[in-house]
């Protein structure tokens, strides 16, 4: 068997068309342009690339993008002051602070300072809590993107054995919570594995749907999965550079061996990555729309 490739690039394109329509409607009917502020502290090359991609995506869709680049040694109080200003800026509907932050800054304190109504990353505890109890809220972009990839490629989660490898707050845990919800894109039986799990293969072999987010290439290999599994590879690992100096990216799954057994699989790049950005755009438009309701 050779797997169907689930293209995040194509699905993200489809969603962008829908978002563009929503933005046009907001502008036409309400004179409202959604606005996103991205805050980058320091000069980490990967973070710079991510922020740049978000800015480009805003510009392509007609979202106002305010990119703020702060020096590595900025004081935590100054960063909190800036967040407060953005919370009160009526042209900004979404605020994203690019993680990780330098060590001298308390990440939790910064994320808690963002107005939950502008928390388009879905990391504020108010939004996390609402997500867990199944209330309407901003869903974190990567987990939401994983759900959209599955549902838009016709993969049913209801009653499925879903196995997640990786328990981070930004990927594994929210994916677990979303898959558990009593609604069409959920209703799965979910197992969450991590570094203390006794026998990962035992679980990965049972999976109908396998979602991997560990940050290590080849965490899952062909001998660890069963025929017909659907695999979502969240991982992004830089393993070198091409002769033109471009980063060589691989996921957390050994693509070549796993694709021989899987029914469907996401590639890296071109799988979850484009979905994360488009879900951020979707949340920003939703934040602008919510503001109309709150007026
Ligand atoms: P993280 O915070 O480092 O968490 C990794 C998790 O994986 C931890 O829970 C860890 O277990 C577990 N783990 C690591 N090695 C393992 C192994 N060999 N077997 C079982 N579990 C293992 O990472 P993250 O932020 O969730 O990111 C994970 C990956 O997704 C990274 O490659 C990252 O670049 C990528 N990512 C991609 C996107 C995107 O848009 N495409 C977005 C976010 C993240 P313990 O808890 O026991 O340590």
- So what's the overall shape? globular
How many discrete domains? 2
**Element-by-element helix/strand order:** EHEHEHEHHHEHEHEEEEHEH
User: Which residue ranges are poorly predicted, with pLDDT under 50 across at least 5 consecutive positions?
Assistant: none
Helix content: 40-55%
Main-sheet strand order equals: 1-11-8-7-5-6
Distance, first to last CA: 55 Å
CATH architecture of the largest domain: 3-Layer(aba) Sandwich
Q: Which CATH class of the largest domain applies here? A: Alpha Beta
Radius of gyration: 19 Å
The helix-and-strand class reads alpha/beta
Query: Quick one: CATH superfamily of the largest domain?
Result: NAD(P)-binding Rossmann-like Domain
Q: Work out the number of β strands.
A: 11
Number of alpha- plus pi-helical segments: 10
CATH topology (level 3) name of the largest domain: Rossmann fold
* Mean pLDDT score: 97
